[in-house]
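Risk mitigation, structural track. In case the binding assays with zinc ion fail to produce interpretable data, a predicted complex structure has been prepared as a fallback.
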Amino acid sequence: MKPVIILGIESSCDDTSAAVVRDGVLITNIMAGQEVHGDYGGVVPELASRAHQQHIVPVVHQALKKAGVAKKEVSAVAFTQGPGLLGSLMVGSTFAKAFALSLDIPVIAVNHLMGHVLSLFIQEPGEHTTVPQFPYLCLLVSGGHTQIMLVQEQLRMKTLGKTIDDAAGEAFDKCGKVMGLPYPAGPLIDKLALQGDPDRFTFSRSRVPGLDFSFSGLKTSFLYFLRDALKEDPGFIVKHQSDLAASLQKTIISMLMEKLRLAAYETGIKNIGIAGGVAANSGLREALSSAAGQEGWKVFIPHRRYTTDNAAMIAITGYYKYLEGDFAGQDTVPMARMPL
Ligand code: KG4
Ligand code: ZN
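Fallback model:
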């Protein structure tokens, strides 16, 4: 039988990525990052769209070439429909639709958040990845979203709780900015935390009932703490950088783990996964592994390279949608906001 070959395209934020999945196995995943935002302390939407425009053709070309796949062999093109930056999404979606139209193949619209959740299903050739059993809970932690998903099947999932203000990644990035770290601060805090004392400082946090999260209180308390400390000692941040990073990271992780434990307790589900950019965090990965022993959970942790934005997760989600015949029309438009 003819193999099912999905070309996946991701362009929701500042990385242009294309991936090829053949019969559910990832063949290539090509990324082009954007350095243009470095001086601005965050992603500048207009610059991001322009950079996607420059990168998309070479990135797709390279992905197909590296996979050894000819254009006419592609079964369908999956693209990120949202949520994300509208201009960035438009570049990926317009390219995907034009590419599919020229080859007379279907397009598949993928929710970026569903892509993150299904990153746990990315299989590389010759490698046996243990994929989650259903139902499982997935803590989805990215730069824009923080939510606990109950996943019944690949394409059937519901949100049990989510942040009412900032996302966990935003908490890392905004607190890091206060410390003078460049954007995105999450990976740098992770690195600094390795040398710091997580119990050196405590920060107050807001508490919300149930399975929802709130990170804005922590951000404010971190900001005030540093403002007061800097009045006493202008060199405070430099002297205590690692301890600040470790203490902040510990607080964010304990807030995430507390709700994840509650969700597991309330649902009785013991298959637990994490996904999204913050799932790259060493402390969170460790916390989940130790919870496995303490709570009797079976845990699923994706490869670091598939936690942050990538087209492999879009291609694999596209593959499952292809099997269900879930195609999009040429009139499908990207959406900046798109709940899961
Ligand atoms: O999923 P993602 O690549 O993009 C969104 O969909 O938002 O997530 C990006 C977020 C950023 O906030 C970044 O600081 C955070 O993930 N992040 C990390 C780490 N790597 C990326 N946060 C903590 N520790 C890390 N190692
Ligand atoms: Zn993402």
